[in-house]
Structures are given as C-alpha cells and as structure tokens.
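Open question from group meeting: does this chain pack into something compact, or does most of it stay loose? Before anyone orders reagents, we agreed to write out a predicted structure and look at it together. Recording both the input and the output here so the notebook holds the full record.
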Amino acid sequence: MPRFYRSRRPGGTFFFTAVTHRRRAVLTTELGRRCFRKGLERIREQRPFDLVAIALLPDHVHTVWTLPEGDADFSTRWQLLKRYFTRAYLAAGGAESEPTASMSRQKQRGLWQRRFWEHTCRDEVDLKRCVDYVHWNPVKHGLVSHVADWPWSTFHRYVKLGEYLSDWGGENPCPDLLVPE
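Structure tokens returned:
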C-alpha cells in the first residue's frame, strides 16, 4: 500500500485541492455552498487558520490556508471539514453516490474522495502563483469566460483590496503549475 507523506511546516501556507466522490457536482448547489460555508466557519472556530484564497467549483475546491504559528495540522482540519459537510449535507436531504466497497468497509460516505492534494507554498512568488491558480480555475474548466464572472471565489475580495483588476485573468497566469484536478 502506498504511503502518503505530508508536509509538516508549522505556521506554513498550503495550497489544497479536495474533490468530490465520483466528481459529483454538489459543491456549488445552494445546499452544497451552504454546508461548505458553515463547515469552514465551524472548523475555523475550533481550529483557526487564515483563509488566503478559495474557489468552490461544482466537483472540487481549491483553497490556500495559512496555519497558526506552531501548528501544522491541516489534515485534521480537512477531516473535520469533510465530516461536517457530509453530515450537514445528508441531514438536509442531499444525496451521496454509492461508496466503493473499500469506503464501505471503512465506514466512509460517498461524498468526498478519500484524500486531498496539498502543496506547501515555498515563498511569496509561489504563494502568488497558487492564489492566481485558485482564482483562474473556473475559467480553466470552462465554467465562465472571465474570472470575475465566477461568484464562488475570493477573487472579488482581492479586487476590492486592489490586488487584481476586475478584468484580470484573460489567460492562464501560471501554466507551469501542475495541480491534479
């Protein structure tokens, strides 16, 4: 069985991708957005972190977090977020896909892929590339033609802060960044 090694950089900044089980398009439904937002709020109350950037897409989410000094435990945060989302989504009437036999043996539900992808942001240049990628991703997937047209990302907050112009993102700002989708 493969072993997965995670970065352990206390107070680090990390870029994540988490994908729904069987790529089900549930995250941008009204129910999915509500459950994900409440889950993020709850987890940030329990285990604080700075939400640097996020883009919620129908079947996956890209996000950048900075953890508090001395804290490197993003895995527990993801576990809690996925658990909260799953419970809230199903309790509100959302449906899951059929879990695999392996998922059933481990008592996992059919809403999320088991793992998530993580990248440690090495410096400010790397962080900027990751944040740009997060915001540009809805265009990459053909969901919108302009970054500003996607409502479920922090791009709009960055425009208000003057970090981006509202028409930013006409072409891929980071074509060399290899992120599993």
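Observations to bring back to the group:
The beta strands are 13-20, 50-56, 60-66, 112-120.
Helices lie at 30-46, 74-91, 101-105, 124-140, 155-160.
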